[in-house]
């Protein structure tokens, strides 16, 4: 199981001091946070993508490329990459480049974006959000998997014999997660390809997340990528901790009450009871997070939102220390208990390379036509099972 | 005996409220009409004041609290809806509009709706036709032709009747209830099981044309 951080990249005024970080300070803080993720023993750093202030991360692969050079181990990811308004050719090239720079420590989460004007700014129509996500991803997959692509679709200039460059590292595209809060079409898309499904769980009741994940799992099985229990699920989460539960509530309350997304709305107590937000001791965070498994099943990736609502960098780094020292080691141990042996880990570059090598041998031996998703299907299948995939 | 459910939403603020009084009279008249047609009606009545904070929290956070979710479910799955608001500053009250702003804009499609409003004078009665009716039309609800407006003076009017010289409040209520009852009687809405994960017809996850089988092999 992977644990990590996802950041929206908002530059928000600290309500306790009135200080607003400059863009430069916020960007540097994000770079510091990413390195801290590795230092405290977490597995994933993921950044959002935005094209309007007060959000700073418009160029995720630039940021992740720097982090790649400063880290050795963590996976560099996104939450999310805008598949609707970005050219799939540029996404294919940017993330293949990042794979080479980062020696494969790359995956990405695709999303449609929730800022209406971004669509017209990039020449698109928000009413076509779902068709854009479907068609652009279909092209992105081909660009990574075929050396020369002939393409004609509804949304971008046709391509004849186009080769995106560089080619994916070791011939293996990065693993893709699809993120959606409320659109079954996206869960269906993730299931269809055998890709991961990321539920940004943090502003929605658990019952809703449970149903979406259940739907994705059933459809994953329907499309023949494995059993429902073997589908690849990631969840968002949101925590604030102090050693003592009351201190956590007292310290976080001004940030909660003024947060851009839920401030001036429900009380922190109501919000924490209705969503996964947990404000309390490390033990409370452990208990709550372990509870996620009760309604989504054994899953592969847990990301937390930690640096938002104007929390100062120093506080965020302290929170990461608590996560790394007191929370995640316990979660690793507890999540491993009773986890069925055939529930896979999230695919990594290494597992995908091994799966692709296995698939090539099968092709050589049988000259069978290989399912284009075999790389993913085989990488997430338990050892010894489903060798031929298609 | 056939059974139907009728939801009543009142945005009155005072206690007692003439808006709630009108809502109750409309509901009672509708239940009587349905009984005459052999239909038993279960009425579920909600005062929006009781949900005011939940409605505003939903607007701010994007999701309904459990109690508001239960209430929205009861309203949107009913065979008919009676929606009554006081007129504030020439239109529906902000609370009334906020409630219909936070529910899914597809959830009232095809629902039979009777609209009503109250105010101090009859000068505001057209608000039913320039504010409430277009809103429910946008939501693809089926709004019955007669809407009922009660000004303060209407509460002192006589029984009237369909052949009366003037169509008084009770006569308007009777006519509106008859129109709603006919639609509620033929509704199967409360027995439908909605599938929140239903995909659009012909949906193809690869983005091209109607869906075939598994992903294209190549």
TrEMBL record, chain A:
Report the domain of life of the source organism: Bacteria
> What species was this sequence derived from?
Cryobacterium suzukii
KW Oxidoreductase (keyword) present: yes
Extract the PANTHER family matched here. Answer: BLR5498 PROTEIN (PTHR30137:SF8), LUCIFERASE-LIKE MONOOXYGENASE (PTHR30137)
Sorted alphabetically, which Gene3D superfamilies does this protein's record hold?
Luciferase-like domain
Q: Which GO terms describe its cellular component?
A: cytosol
Keywords attached to this entry: Monooxygenase, Oxidoreductase
Q: Which GO terms describe its molecular function?
A: monooxygenase activity; oxidoreductase activity, acting on paired donors, with incorporation or reduction of molecular oxygen
Q: Where is the composition biased (Low complexity)?
A: 7-21
Luciferase-like domain mapped to chain residues: 1-294
- Where are the annotated segments for Disordered? 1-21
Q: Does the keyword Oxidoreductase apply?
A: yes
What is the name attached to this protein's record? Answer: LLM class flavin-dependent oxidoreductase
Automatic annotation (TrEMBL), chain B:
Q: Which InterPro entries match?
A: CE1759_FMN_reduct (IPR023932), Flavoprotein-like_sf (IPR029039), FMN_Rdtase-like_dom (IPR005025), NAD(P)H-dep_FMN_reductase (IPR051814)
The reply on keyword Cytoplasm is: no
Recorded GO molecular functions are: oxidoreductase activity
List compositional bias (Low complexity) regions by residue number.
200-218
Q: Where is this region: Disordered?
A: 187-218
State the Pfam families in the record: FMN_red
Q: Ligase: present as a keyword of the record?
A: no
Which residue numbers delimit the NADPH-dependent FMN reductase-like domain? 6-155
Which keywords accompany this UniProt record? Flavoprotein, FMN, Oxidoreductase
Q: Which SUPFAM superfamilies match?
A: Flavoproteins
PANTHER family annotated for this entry? FMN REDUCTASE (NADPH)
Can you say what this protein is called?
NADPH-dependent FMN reductase
User: What is the scientific name of the source organism?
Assistant: Cryobacterium suzukii
Task: Recite the lineage of the species.
Answer: Bacteria, Bacillati, Actinomycetota, Actinomycetes, Micrococcales
């Amino acid at each position: 199981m992977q644990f990590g951080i996802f950041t929206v990249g908002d530059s928000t005024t600290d309500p306790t001091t009135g200080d607003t970080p400059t863009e430069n300070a916020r960007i540097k803080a994000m770079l510091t946070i990413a390195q801290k993720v590795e230092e405290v023993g977490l597995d994933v750093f993921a950044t959002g993508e935005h094209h309007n202030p007060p959000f700073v991360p418009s160029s995720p692969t630039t940021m992740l490329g720097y982090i790649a050079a400063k880290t050795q181990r963590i996976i560099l990811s996104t939450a999310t990459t805008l598949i609707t308004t970005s050219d799939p050719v540029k996404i294919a090239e940017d993330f293949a480049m990042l794979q080479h720079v980062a020696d494969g420590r790359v995956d990405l989460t695709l999303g449609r974006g929730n800022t209406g004007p971004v669509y017209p700014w990039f020449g698109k129509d928000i009413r076509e959000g779902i068709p854009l996500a479907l068609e652009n991803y279909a092209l992105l997959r081909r660009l990574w998997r075929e050396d020369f692509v002939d393409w004609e679709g509804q949304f971008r200039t046709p391509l004849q014999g186009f080769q995106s460059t560089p080619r994916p590292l070791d011939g293996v595209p990065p693993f893709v997660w699809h993120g959606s809060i409320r659109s079954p079409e996206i869960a269906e898309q993730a299931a269809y390809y055998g890709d991961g499904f990321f539920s940004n769980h943090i502003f929605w009741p658990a019952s809703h997340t449970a149903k979406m994940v259940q739907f994705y799992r059933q459809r994953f099985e329907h499309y023949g990528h494995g059993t429902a229990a073997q589908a690849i699920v990631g969840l968002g989460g949101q925590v604030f901790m102090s050693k003592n539960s009351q201190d956590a509530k007292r310290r976080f309350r001004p940030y909660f009450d003024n947060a851009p997304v839920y401030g001036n709305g429900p009380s922190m107590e109501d919000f924490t009871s209705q969503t996964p937000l947990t404000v309390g001791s490390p033990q409370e965070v452990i208990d709550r997070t372990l509870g996620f498994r009760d309604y989504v099943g054994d899953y592969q990736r847990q990301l937390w939102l930690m640096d938002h609502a104007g929390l100062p960098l120093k506080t965020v780094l302290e929170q990461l220390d608590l996560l790394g020292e007191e929370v995640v080691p316990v979660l690793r141990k507890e999540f491993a208990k009773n986890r069925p042996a055939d529930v896979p880990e999230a695919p990594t570059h290494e597992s995908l390379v091994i799966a692709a090598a296995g698939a090539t041998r099968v092709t050589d031996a049988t000259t069978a036509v290989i399912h284009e998703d075999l790389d993913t299907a085989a990488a997430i299948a338990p050892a010894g099972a489903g060798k031929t995939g298609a | 005996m056939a059974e139907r459910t009728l939801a009543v939403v009142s945005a009155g603020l005072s206690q007692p409220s003439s808006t709630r009084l009108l809502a109750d009279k409309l509901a009672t008249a509708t239940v009587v009409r349905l009984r005459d047609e052999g239909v038993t009606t279960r009425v579920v009545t909600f005062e929006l004041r009781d949900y005011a904070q939940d409605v505003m929290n939903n607007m701010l956070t994007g999701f309904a609290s459990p109690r508001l979710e239960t209430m929205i479910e009861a309203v949107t799955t009913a065979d008919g809806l009676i929606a009554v608001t006081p007129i504030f500053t020439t239109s529906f009250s902000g609370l009334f509009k906020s409630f219909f702003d936070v529910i899914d804009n597809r959830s009232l499609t095809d629902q039979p709706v009777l609209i009503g409003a109250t105010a101090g004078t009859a000068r505001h009665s057209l608000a039913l036709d320039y504010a409430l009716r277009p809103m429910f039309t946008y939501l693809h609800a089926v709004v019955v032709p007669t809407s009922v407006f009660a000004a303060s003076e209407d509460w002192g009017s006589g029984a009237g009747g369909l052949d009366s010289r003037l169509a008084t409040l009770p006569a308007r209520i009777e006519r509106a209830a008859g129109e709603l009852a006919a639609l509620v009687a033929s509704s199967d809405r409360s027995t439908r099981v909605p599938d929140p994960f239903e995909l659009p017809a012909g949906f193809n996850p690869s983005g091209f044309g109607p869906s075939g089988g598994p992903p294209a092999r190549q």
